[in-house]
Design goal:
12 helices; Aldehyde Dehydrogenase, Chain A, domain 2; 5-stranded parallel sheet; 345 residues; 7-stranded mixed sheet; 2 domains; Aldehyde Dehydrogenase, Chain A, domain 1; 17% strand
Length: 345
């Protein structure tokens, strides 16, 4: 397989991420101090990239990038010897959000031309530097740019609904995956335990709710009381220590109060009844439902708008509480199989 030659470099990367946090005395051949500096720089460059969120991201990738996981993932596809240059337009809403595409391109035997997001210019260049040292042949297959994309054969681009229209026009001559806005939701039936709701808080608050896998709306049964929900998420109160989060929270609260809207507020999260799915930072939308079956049918019709459904109600495609931010290698964004696209070129 064309990708197998690069496998060990990614396994080594996973070991670096894992050992960095699990063994503070392990210098990993001098890479520890470099990664420490990069994490500091990433937070300075983008305050949403807190050390805690970067740690969560890197530890998750450390768990994924094992030889066993990578083998199980890529051996399920059939590869050709065709090699193409794949342009990736990186998003920057959460740390290393485009790394899965980057990984898929290289392990499918292609080369990558990655356009960095202005919000994430630090982490991926470090990853590339590390990979190139582990496997010098990768240096001929990886190019990073902040400028205009040129000389490529196919494209993977992630953005908003507005930028997606631009991408579709600009890249219309190329095989492509164009991703648009999606949101994640949670469906409750009132039988959740405090532990369930504590895990749900991870789905809501991790990365400040900026990811497409972040739960931005709850569906609750009519008459649902939020007391246990608020008690179960209280451990996230330290979000108020983050200046950008608290500025958004205060602003949205002021707007809602001046508009005399009916809201619930626990001091760091506003819960607002709203039919929309994309709630602003510091706010969580909710909507009541009468029938779980009717809601299930509605969500099936809205599938193209949804990234994840977090629930324990037996809904199609639901995932468990606390799992939305820890996708597996085979959990593809927008349910579009990136690897299948790449091996079919």
């Amino acid at each position: 397989m064309p990708q197998a030659e690069h496998l060990q470099a990614f396994v080594n990367l996973g070991e670096l991420f894992t050992r960095f946090y699990e063994n503070p005395n392990d210098t990993f051949n001098g890479w520890r101090p470099q990664l420490e500096i990069v994490i500091e720089q990433a937070e300075v460059h983008n305050p949403w990239y807190t050390k805690e969120n970067i740690a969560f991201c890197l530890l998750h990738w450390g768990q994924l990038l094992t030889e066993q996981n990578l083998n199980k993932w890529y051996t399920s596809y059939r590869y050709s010897n065709n090699e193409h240059k794949i342009a990736i337009v990186m998003a920057g809403n959460i740390p290393l959000v485009g790394f899965h595409d980057f990984l898929a391109v290289l392990l499918s035997g292609h080369s990558v031309l990655a356009k960095l997001s202005s919000n994430d210019r630090v982490l991926l260049p470090f990853v590339v530097k590390f990979l190139n040292e582990q496997d010098p042949s990768l240096s001929q297959k990886i190019e990073l740019t902040e400028g205009r994309l040129q000389d490529f054969d196919a494209v993977i681009a992630t953005g908003s609904n507005n930028t997606a229209r631009y991408f579709e026009y600009y890249f219309k001559k190329y095989p492509s995956i164009i991703r648009k806005n999606r949101n994640s939701i949670a469906v409750l039936d009132g039988n959740e335990t405090p532990e369930n709701l504590t895990h749900l808080a991870q789905d809501i608050f991790r990365y400040f709710g900026l990811g497409c896998r972040s739960v931005s709306k709850l569906y609750v049964p009519k008459g649902y009381r939020f007391d246990t929900f608020f008690e179960s998420i209280f451990e996230w109160k330290d979000l108020l220590d983050h200046h950008k989060y608290v500025n958004n929270y205060d602003y949205n609260k002021a707007v809602y109060l001046m508009s005399e809207l009916n809201i619930l507020d626990n001091g760091f999260l506003i819960v607002k009844e709203d039919k929309g799915k994309a709630s602003p930072i510091g706010t969580l939308f909710y909507e009541e439902y009468d029938s779980l079956k009717e809601l299930s049918n509605q969500l099936s019709e809205e599938a193209e708008e949804l990234q994840c459904i977090v629930s324990n109600c037996g809904l199609p495609s639901e995932i468990g509480f606390g799992t939305s931010q820890i996708p597996a290698l085979s959990d593809y964004a927008d349910s579009v199989d990136t690897m299948k696209f790449l091996v079919g070129l």
